[in-house]
Here is the input.
Amino acid sequence: MLCAAILIALSGHNPLTAFAAMAEGAVGSAHQLGVALNKTTPYLLAGSGVALCFRAGVINIGAEGQIAVGGMGTAAVALALPIDASLPAIVLALAGGALAGAAWAALAAAIHLGRQVHEVLVTLLLNFVAALLVQQALAGPLGEFGAGFLQSPRMPAAVWLPRAIPGLDAHPGFLIAIVLAAALSFLLWRTRFGFSLRVAGASRPAAAYAGFSVAGLTWKVMLLAGALAGLAGGIEVLGVHRRLIEGFSLGFGFKAVTVALLGALEPFAVIPAALFVGLLEAGALSMQRQVGVPSSLVAVIEGLTMLFVLAATVRRRAA
Amino acid sequence: MDFLAASIRIATPLLLAALGGILSERAGVFAVGLEGMMLAGAFAATVAAWAADSAGAGILAAIAGGALVGVMVAVVTVRYRADNMVTGLAANIFVAGLTSYLLRAAGQGGRPPSIHLAPLAAWPVPLLSDIPVLGPLLFDHPPLTYLAAIACVAMTLFLSRTQMGLTLRATGENPEAVFASGANPKLVRMLSVVACGAVAGLGGAVLSLQQVGTFTDNMTGGRGYLALASLIVGRWTPAGAAAACLVFGAADAFGLRLQTFGLPASSYVLQMAPYVIALVVLASLGRATRLPAAIGQQLD
Here is the structure.
């Protein structure tokens, strides 16, 4: 925060005014809070998946691509469905997204495990391929003709996520995400699978000695995280943009890593971490509008927070 | 002919970043921060060259900018013993945000100032550039391209023929032995990461000073990650990395060619080529890639 204040002051604005505008933009009205919750949703979903991967010692940086492909999957299903009934259509479309995200993660897992390529590289490179894949789909079968941008036609109104949380301009995705994060926390701490994940993360040889298949665990946790990220992409498409847009997932993957680390790789603690980032972003947008401080300040704060958290947590462990 | 020249042009920033990455990884620190180091270099080069109206100042600033990111990564990974991969990513996010922020803060009303620099001109090498075919291909490039080639040779000699190079490599393989020999492996790692930043920063300067003539948000666009892939494909040797960078450059140049000829292949599919090739090559090398033994390991 101090670093942020110095940066704002350097750019010739009053940090206090800027922070006031930021707070106002984050929680100043029901509408703003809704915007913040909507921003929080994908980070929370993808971030709790990433937290689980990191717990198991699988450094999955691929949330970005999995979100992109998930959004594409949801859009494809939603546009192709002949159903008018709202709820089944939404469920099917989101399932399509989760499936697509899991498939993309499966590709990464297959290359990583099958050919012993480091997962960070595989997932990173696949992020770029995924973004281009979405652009390709939008330039072709999923695209809206003559739109001038790369975007799909508007989703049929039946699959729009309703503004369901009373009084807030938010879609129900945030609630889904909270429920899933709580479920993942249970999975991590109260089940055999969760235990094996934690053992594998702490020591690969110990996990193998205990009879857990590390490869099998990697598969499962990658598929799970991919499905969560795909769901996040699907919710983003149905709940926020109501169409598939080029680059809608830009930067989401790294934010997922940020909130996973901020939440100390504990899905339940990822909830406040994701809220923090969501509020920060909603606030920064309005700060940019009102005070003229560029909203890229958010990335600076996020990066710095991440570096501090990294430096601090490891030192604690060493002590 | 143009095609080969274009391959070299695209490969140049990748090669400088990959050479930096070799220093870092050979000393035992994963070089995921290459993207941020390049971006910082590209940014610092643009601002300094614009402010001082001198390309030389830009190049020095690129070295300093990249090295600063290197200092940050070095402190967090070596001093505070944080995970190399995630630290690199955090640094990348931080630099992307910071450069974008500073660019806007320097302009009016939240808009970046418009900076237009004349891209560095080619320096044809006297006599050699007159050789038919080879001359225009190899000896008619802008200065930083020669610098990348020279750095590649220099790095090979440094790593294989000097005491410092040996110490650096040993730190990545067996830090205890380095410690026993009286050197400080932590210091070696920190210096290597800072040097990595400086060289990768130069790679960023190639983009902003030599090719585009300005800085745009996130202008490296994943080149740092491609550089990382190419140094692995090149098995942590400068010559190998250079070959890999040229292959990626050729893949990109090939895509651009197809587009200009209006062939039916889609531009997005073609843009995937470098990433897909990187994945395929990495996958086919598979188990054959041997990492420096102590890479990513924390030192007490």
